Amino acid sequence: MAAELGVVMHLYIMGLEMQPSRLRGVRQQIFDLGLVQVLN
């Protein structure tokens, strides 16, 4: 539980620091990599 909360907080902080245009650019890559991880 604590590890999951840590991951969520890390992603939230990364989202605050990234510029919206860059976040949109990497969104598809993140989605694709997540899908590959789920399917394996």
Q: Outline of this structure?
A:
With 40 residues, the chain is an all-alpha fold.
Describe the fold and architecture.
With 40 residues, this protein is mainly alpha-helical. Helix content is 90%, strand content 0%. The chain has 2 helices and no strands. The protein has helices at residues 2-17, 20-39. It is flat.
Strand residues, percent: under 5%
Total count of strands: 0
Report the end-to-end length measured between terminal Cα atoms.
23 Å
| Major pleated sheet | none
Q: Could you report the average pLDDT, rounded to the nearest whole number? A: 83
Q: What does the overall shape look like?
A: flat
- Poorly predicted regions are none
Global structural class: mainly alpha
Could you spell the SSE succession in H and E letters? HH
Helix and strand layout, with pairings?
Blueprint (H helix, E strand, L loop, with lengths): L1 H16 L2 H20 L1
Overview features:
2 helices; 0% strand; 40 residues; mainly alpha
